[in-house]
Amino acid sequence: GRNGYSGTTNHPVTEVNWYDVVKWCNARSEKDGLAPVYYTNNTLASVYRTGQLDLAVDAVKWMANGYRLPTEAEWEFAARGGTKSLGYIDSGSNAIGDVSWFNMNAGNNTHPVSTKEPNELGWYDLSGNVCECYWDWYDAYSNVPQTNPKGPTPQSYHVTRGGSFGDYVVNVLSSRVAFRGHG
Q1: For residues 86-95, average pLDDT
Q2: Does pLDDT of 58 surpass 90?
Q3: How far is CA 166 from CA 128, 129, 169, in A?
Q4: In this structure, are residues 155 and 119 in contact, taking their beta carbons and an 8 Å threshold?
């Protein structure tokens, strides 16, 4: 990856793939003396460090104290403001320009984190600037009610949420909390 779309420092990292992010989570966990979260298979015996493995939910040590990607459900709960939610359509506002960098205000580039308003939890950039990576694979939602689901089995794409600086104003729906993309 690189800092920002144009390589600018203090901008969110761009151009990384899901596999590298997951391996980075494990590497950072080990560097900080924490237990890695992602493993090569369901035996949880070999830490995922190389290659591009399409990990299944049973190859994750969910209770480990190491770093991991949020699930789609965890991200949505946080983006909506958690238990402090005021019901906004974007993360922290109904006025997208207050909380989001998107095509009409970003100047075709990312921006330093936390230069727009935060959501109810005090978290920045959950709408716009860059799309975020999540644990989950992209698939239709299950018809079965679930509490904190861990997503479907491996599919073709991972879920992306939050929208980005390149999303056009006519497509501001991509920055809305409810919008789901894949990449």
Answers
A1: 94
A2: yes
A3: 9, 8, 9
A4: no
The answer to whether residues 48 and 23 touch, using CB atoms and an 8 Å cutoff, is yes
Judge whether 94 and 88 are in contact, CB under 8 Å. yes
Q: Which of 173, 71, 85, 80 is nearest to 132 (CA)?
A: 71
Say what the pLDDT of residue 46 is. Answer: 98
Contact 135, 72 (CB under 8 A): yes
Tracing tokens 């992010």 back to the chain, one arrives at 21
Q: How far is CA 143 from CA 71, 80, 146, in A?
A: 18, 22, 9
Whether the CA torsion 131, 134, 140, 143 is positive or negative: it is: negative
Distance CA 47, CA 7 (A): 31
Tell me the per-residue pLDDT of 99-114, one tens digit each, with 9 for 90 and over: 999 888 999 899 999 9
Give the bridge partners for 161, in sequence order: 132
Secondary structure element (H or E) that encloses residue 23, with its range: helix 18-31
Smallest Cα–Cα separation from 150: which of 91, 51, 36, 68?
A: 68
Give the separation between CA 76 and CA 66, rounded to whole angstroms: 21
For CA atoms 125, 128, 129, 131, give the dihedral sign: positive
| d(C-alpha 100, C-alpha 142), whole Å | 29
What is the average per-residue pLDDT within 13-18?
A: 89
